[in-house]
Each structure stands twice: as C-alpha cells, then as structure tokens.
Amino acid sequence: MIKIVFFVFCFLSIIPVYGQKKTYSLSKKLNEISGICIYNDSLIFAHNDGGNKAFIFVLDLKGNILKKCFISNAKNNDWEDIATDHKGNLFIGDFGNNKSLRKNTCILQIPIQDVLNKEKSQAVIFNFQYKDQVKYPPNKSSPNFDAETLICDGQNLWIFTKCGNNPYSGISFVYKIPIKNLHSSISLKKFTQTTPGKRGWLVDSFTAGTFYKKHFYLSTYNRLIKYSLSKNTLLKEKEIIYKKFNQKEALAIDSKGNVYVANEKHKFLGPAKLHIFKLKK
Fold first, then answer.
1. What is the pLDDT of residues 226-279, one digit of tens each?
2. Confidence bin at 102 (pLDDT 50/70/90)
3. pLDDT one-digit tens code per residue, 56-85
C-alpha cells in the first residue's frame, strides 16, 4: 500500500504549472544540501544537513562550488535552513528535531564577509526553546517541534515547524523572532499556525522557505506555496506544482523572481540538483 500511495504522489507531482528554466547537477560534496539563500543575485550560500561538517559553501548561480568557510565554534547537529538579512549577516537554523527531543536547538549568525573572504569564522549562537513544548518528547498527539524552515523578512526571523501528529493533521506552528531581540537564550511563543495539507508528511510538510516581495514562499517535496500575512493569519494565495517529485530541502528567490530549488541525493529519487525557474506574475 505504501508503494502505491507513493506512486500516486509522484504521478500527481509531475503535473507542472510553470515552465522549468534550468537544472544543474551539484557536487557530491552537496549530496545532503539542506539550505540555500541568494546573495546580490550573483552567489548562493549553501549548507548540508545534520551530521556533516560545519561548512558554509559559496556557489555560483549554476551550483558550482567557489569556496567554503568552516564555522569553528559550532557543530552541524541538524542544520536545516539558511537566510540572509540586509545588514550583512547569514542566519542558520540548527533546529532539525525529528523526535522533538532536542534541548539545544539554536540559530547561528555569521558575517557574510567572513564567509566570502575567510576559510574559518565563528558564529554568534542564539539558543532557543519552544515555550509550548513542556515535555521531551511531547505527547504523541502533538509532536510539532521539528523544523526545516527559517525565513528572514528583513526585520524578523520566522520558523515554520513540520507536522508530526499521528493521525496526521498537517499543522505547522509558526514562530516570529524580531532580529533586534535575539539573545543567548530565547523562549519562543507560537505566533500563528497554518495547514498546507492533510495527506501526509511526504507532500504536506514544509522543508524550506524564503521571503519575496512581502510574501512567504514555502516548499514541500512536491510544490511551492505562496502566502500573504494579514495580522496574525497566513493566507494561502497560490500553489505551484513541481515537475518532478524528489527530496527538495532548499529554496531561494532572487530579486528578479528566479526561483532556486535544491534537492538532496536520494537512492530512488536521483542525485542532488539545483533547479531554476521563473515565477509567473
């Protein structure tokens, strides 16, 4: 039954609503690529998933590695996403938490100029915990404290969690952190929540996100979802179905509306690749 359901999901996911522009193969050094962001429409910052070394990679717009920078005072426990502000900082979410057991979730802040010009740098580390998680692990009915998405809107950082409920409810908790309020130990209060879908984590869990022209764009394995924010409510505006189903873990959009999506290598779903397409108005 699982194989049949998986096939159906894959079949549905190949019905596109955009014209794919380009696809590039990534180096084996990025087989577990988990986060990307665009810098000055000319470079990509990228990192691998948890268990890999604490490197930030600098790529060209075809995904070729130009250099890398080692973050010497941090460990890649489970790096899941990367974002940049307008003041020369990178932020990395070390908050992958499959079993919702972690008490050392954190956000790293690294100067962009260090990454561009040095072989090593150090991060400022902001530890946080979810205020609404009072048990480790939480109750089986609400293990919603695993996240793969970090977004910066210029003034705030946003964390979107993955649903871990059984039965699957699809709910993603959303947390807002004003950058000016970052400090060494943060207790995060839930800002709002949203439900991308209720079919299961395979197609309805957020795995990456970015902010573009006052909208949130969030990716699952099979589609890109555009949201607007009205007060404390996220309103779904549009869904873009990807041409191919694979393990998409990273998303960025440049100032011209070019969408960059990267998928990890998967034994059955193919090698790590960078996909680029243009947003339609």
1. 999 999 999 999 999 999 999 999 999 999 999 999 999 999 999 999 999 999
2. confident
3. 999 999 999 999 999 999 999 999 999 999
Structure tokens at 46: 């990228």
Task: Report the side by side order of strands in the sheet with 215-219.
Answer: 208-212, 215-219, 223-230, 233-241
* β-sheet with 89-94: strand ranges across: 79-84, 89-94, 106-111, 124-130, 185-188
Q: Which amino acid is at 106?
A: C
List the one residue out of 21, 31, 80, 6 whose CA is nearest residue 242.
21
Residue 4 clears pLDDT 60, i.e. is over it: no
Nearest CA to 175 out of 238, 93, 250, 259 is that of 93
